[in-house]
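User: hey, got a sec? need AP-1 complex subunit gamma folded
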Amino acid sequence: MPAPIRLRELIRTIRTARTQAEEREMIQKECAAIRSSFREEDNTYRCRNVAKLLYMHMLGYPAHFGQLECLKLIASQKFTDKRIGYLGAMLLLDERQDVHLLMTNCIKNDLNHSTQYVQGLALCTLGCMGSSEMCRDLAGEVEKLLKTSNSYLRKKAALCAVHVIRKVPELMEMFLPATKNLLSEKNHGVLHTSVVLLTEMCERSPDMLLHFRKLVPQLVRILKNLIMSGYSPEHDVSGISDPFLQVRILRLLRILGRSDDDSSEAMNDILAQVATNTETSKNVGNAILYETVLTIMDIKSESGLRVLAINILGRFLLNNDKNIRYVALTSLLKTVQTDHNAVQRHRSTIVDCLKDLDVSIKRRAMELSFALVNGNNIRGMMKELLYFLDSCDPEFKADCASGVFLAAEKYAPSKRWHIDTIMRVLTTAGSYVRDDSVPNLIQLITNSVEMHAYTVQRLYKALLDDISQQPLVQVSSWCIGEYGDLLVSGQCEEEEPIQVTEDEVLDVLEGLLVSNLSTPVTRGYSLTAIMKLSTRFSSVNRIKKVVSIYGSSIDVELQQRAVEYNALFKKYDHMRPALLERMPIMEKTASNGPTEIVQTNGETEPSVPDTKHPPLVTQPANQANDLLDLLGGNDVVPVIQTTLPTKPASAGGELLDLLGDLSLSGGPAPAPSVPVSQPPFLLDGLSSQPLFNDISAAIPPMTAYSKNGLKIEFTFERANPNPNIAVITIHATNTTEDDMTEFVFQAAVPKTFQLQLLSPSSNIVPALNHGSVTQVIRVLNPQKQQLRMRVKLTYTHKGSPVQDLAEVNNFPPQSWQ
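Assistant: Yep! Here you go:
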């Protein structure tokens, strides 16, 4: 068989390929020749073939068939074979292939080889791809080489020990004795790898961290020698002595000095020396200064040293290199909370970064600028940020607008300034603001009683200039509807009032209704505003015509509003002034997120009982009114929404009552007799008690519903320690041949009870009684009255939706007495 081509010739041949297909053809041809050579056990050219295979692997072609050949090369006695074999093992093998375990014995033999270069190859391979099993078997050999006097082997053994510790952390203590003399080594390679090993051990074990804190003076001495040493061509990089070792030592000092006063005190002086003596004209010096800053900010350093670190970051902001500026802004953003005043000194430089062309720098500068805003600089900073908002790319507008809203809400010097600032945001970036900005601004305007005339005049002017910003149009429509009379009367004292007639105001609002720029939500705001003006303006006939036109609108929401407003004019005109009077001052709600809403089968359910009284979960009005009338009569009052209780006295009246005025006697519903101190949750305070007592065994089960193959059975238990609570478990079974899907069970009780409906076990009732759906109902009956319940069942059977109502009155006396 002819000798295979050399690696150099293969590379030259592949580079001559003009197309990807031609290259693939060359690779496939060469792979076939290599496979044939492997099958013939050709020891002469195995090394050459594996080398070519590794080159193909680096080009992205499969080379897994060379794994065993790598092991044969490792077992060879030639150094050239071992070198290619170990390189192949590092590239082609990892823990996922069991083949790598076959190398363990070869690596063990080579770790004890007489030639240091063979030992070095074995250490490199173990440190690169050794599995946890290999590390356990070979840790002893690595530890021996860590104690040797040979610097070449010690530095490789230290890096291999790092890999062993990462794979098998419990072997960390094995290397502890060997680390004692590592820092006394003069060789920089050994020092570097030793610091890496110590860093790994400190990060993984608090005990090791305490043990190595005594090495801080030695590390400080090494770092000082590096700074003060003269020119050394072997270690010099751009005029700085071994910057790689300096950076590693600074990182280790940061870990050792964190949360430790003594260690931090010992390194304060050397950190100050590094910060002042390092040359900043080259990138190498900036890298060391950056690590120094991170170390200063992370340990318990002196205040003067922290100011020095922040000043270094301030100098970074003036650097022409964009990467350095970005790093400085990111670091300042992390430290602004702890050293706010020191960072404030560089405010002008930070604001200048908002004009940078690089989008990453602009984003970091924007975030840092908002972090620097306080009550003293709010006016100046908002001026700069609003200018940035005007000119920035669309990707920044949403975050910038949100930041301005939050800062203005927190630090506004006056209500007028607050309103002006938010209106400026709406006029420049209205399409990018968050959804909650409209109700928040409306609440702010409503609560600023003395600013109503000024605000409605400003918003009216803004509306004349631009109707493309929908949030601005919505706020303007709302305010004109509320305070249109102030606009027409010209009562503004803050600025010169404008002369506006009622017809002009109505023209603007009608224009919004027909504008192509208006969204359905905006049209709803405009129609409501026009309706409100019917009690503030004299042009009632014109308003009636506008409202009646939209009674046949294609938009269902707009149509419903118009129909309801027409009904107000025709049937309830005497109530219209009271219904459309001005909104009262709105209470400020918590701004830390929406109230959590938990729903099961259409009922609002409190969260898991807690011994502390959490706030009662509230249900929005639209969800409450979406609950269908379970009684089918007019006596249902769907008042399900409850406000967040601020006083214990209101907790007893906040019942999830679906029956409204229906009472057991048929007369007016009696007032709930729940004690004033009753907590808002039915089973509040029971989490540490046994939930049920033995009386439940005496309550017989009952069939509550049986129709069309669906059977609902109630079983009863009594809560302990509160005997007023009955726990009812429903069991829904299905005797038909098809599953009942989308099963929903709803229940309602009279006002004198409280009902809590928990989540069902499933929404599918299996056919032929092959399972059941269970659901728990908790009923609080403080007056011990006879229990009555209306249930509503909704499900889909054989593709058809089914709904049914039933009344359950035959509850066992033991369940409610």
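Quick note: The first helix runs from residue 7 to 15. Let me know if you need anything else on AP-1 complex subunit gamma.
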